[in-house]
Amino acid sequence: MVWVKPEGAEIAEVELAAGRLAATGTAIGGDPLPYRLEYELTTGDRYVTARLLVEAHGTDPATGPWRRWLELVDRPEGEWTVSARAEGRVALPPPGGDAAELRGALDCDLGLSPLTNTMPALRTPDATPDAGPAEYLMAWVSVPDLAVSPSRQTYEVVRRDGDLAVFRFASPGFTEEIVFRDGLVLDYPSIGRLVSPGVSGS
Fold first, then answer.
1. pLDDT, tens digit, for every residue of 1-30?
2. What's the predicted TM-score (pTM) here?
3. 137 touches 150 (CB < 8 A)
4. Which residues 6+ apart lie within 8 Å of 161 measured at CB?
5. Burial class (CB in 10 A: 0-12, 13-18, 19+), 162
6. Which residues contact 99 (CB under 8 A, 6 or more apart)?
7. In terms of domain of life, where is this protein from (predicted)?
8. Among residues 8, 30, 49, 69, which one has the fewest Cβ atoms lying within 10 Å of its Cβ?
């Protein structure tokens, strides 16, 4: 899958099977500074996040190369672990965060990535506009600094048309309508638009 973005692009290999998702991806961006990012995502049953591994790196003209790593693990009992480290000097917040604040979250949300918006949509394939908004607590990862924090978000079906579904997504101070096809992001206007689909699995 390839999404083009207002600043950059993202490519991901996605596998869906038996209520689980596995993906590896690469993204490039330029805000607040140029960066390249690689990630690996795996879920358990019902597309609940099991592990997210992210690496971001770039070169600051003033201080030279920098690199950051973040690993999030969601244990079956709902407790998260957060591991992070950084190399080089760059004007970004430190990576990582307080795992205790993520307790009860089902999903991760990787900043500026259309992929991680798919889990709530995949989990509710039959939701209708009459169902009202569904609220989720997310482990939100800021990019490219890789700081993680809790984020309350809602997903509400606005309309459906065959294999297309439009969800109204909302987080504090932000609202957007996202178009999904078979549970995967087709168009997220401020984040990315799918130009090359490609998903394996059954």
1. 999 999 899 999 999 999 999 999 999 999
2. 0.94
3. yes
4. none
5. exposed
6. 79, 80, 81, 82
7. Bacteria
8. 30
